[in-house]
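Question: Hello, beginner here. Any chance you could explain the protein record under this note? Any guidance would be welcome.
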Amino acid sequence: MALTCDPATGRIVHDAVNALWLVPPSGGAARRLTDDAKDATWPSFFPGGARVAFQSFRRGTYDLCAVDLATGAVERLTRGPQYDVEPAVSPDGRRIAYVSEDDGTSVLRCLDLATGRTRTLAGTGDGRSYRSPTWHPGGRSLAYVVGETEVETLHLADGRRTPTYTAPAGQVVRGTSYSPGGALAHVLVDGPRARLHVEGRPVSAPAEEPGPFPVAWLSATELVHGGADGLLRRRTTTGPATPDASTVIPFTALLSAPGTRPVNRRPVVLPDSAPVRGIAGPVLSPDASAVCFRALGALWLLPFGGTARRLTDDGDCRDPHWFPDGRAIVHSSDRTGVPQLWRHPLDGGPPEQLTDRPGGALLPSVSPSGRQIASRTRRGRCTSSTSTAGRAGRSCPFRTMRARRRGPPTAPGSPSPSWCPPPSGRPPGSTGC
């Protein structure tokens, strides 16, 4: 768990189950500060202890927010499609350093709370990742993790950067945090194990397992950290790195279920028939006497003035298209696992599979002669096959057509291939272009 302390009062705020909780210095019942909707993590106290900054996923991206501990009012501090995370409030409470991630890039930024303006401090175009910024108590520099193995210090007056710490080979560094006296702490992770270090010296026992987050400081020599076991531990940095040198801060956090399980007062009985709430892909027959459409995962035929009857009952059938003679329909179905074209005769005969392509076949369109069928593969390639119209089992291998691709063809609203009409002066059964 990530946590922060108010040195003046000793109060602790930590995150758990995507909410912030306020714990008294000696432990006890924790008071919840944020609701589920805020999705709040990574707290950082403002000086004076009246407010806490945090990162929130409330609107589908991470923004920086602040909560008033007395009223519970939440203020949104940053906006935009980027992820603004890991806030660290400056010692004077006027600025917040944080990491901003957008489109695979990571930058270190600073928010001026008086003006609302942000300034990029590091990371523009350098291809490095940044984590866990922490302010020096004098407010003149920041330390942060670069990549997985280095800690760097940024001097704000002149922009100078100096290496501060490099993790041993095979280990990673997390959770940098300055003490009120200027000592720099970090968590060193070695495979499944982690230990807390201050100024490069281990101060936690191997069994404590600190989480990969910044520690919170009660004074220049006393800190609190959250363990991987969910416990809060208090220890001094001057004592030995032994288990008995740390003290568990007991606390309880009361969680309530988001709702109650519904009770069925009577069994649910589905009707034998019910109105269809929506249809898709209606196509008119060549003689305009009937329409074929998709509903409830199947294809249906509705003669005008009559009753709709179901044509298909297996697989996800879609994209119906009429043969010119009106005696059969071609459609796409995934009944074999991959969408392929099928011919469905309307005289009661069995359906016939027309294609067996690894890339599938969708959105069929029959030529005016009925001898060719154009379609699209799942990757968008336009293809055609030739067959003897109205005769089962006479399909020929596809050949690829030259076609310009415009966007994802299988997305909703993508068009089927379209045939040219027969050349002027030729009979209606002739093939188009």
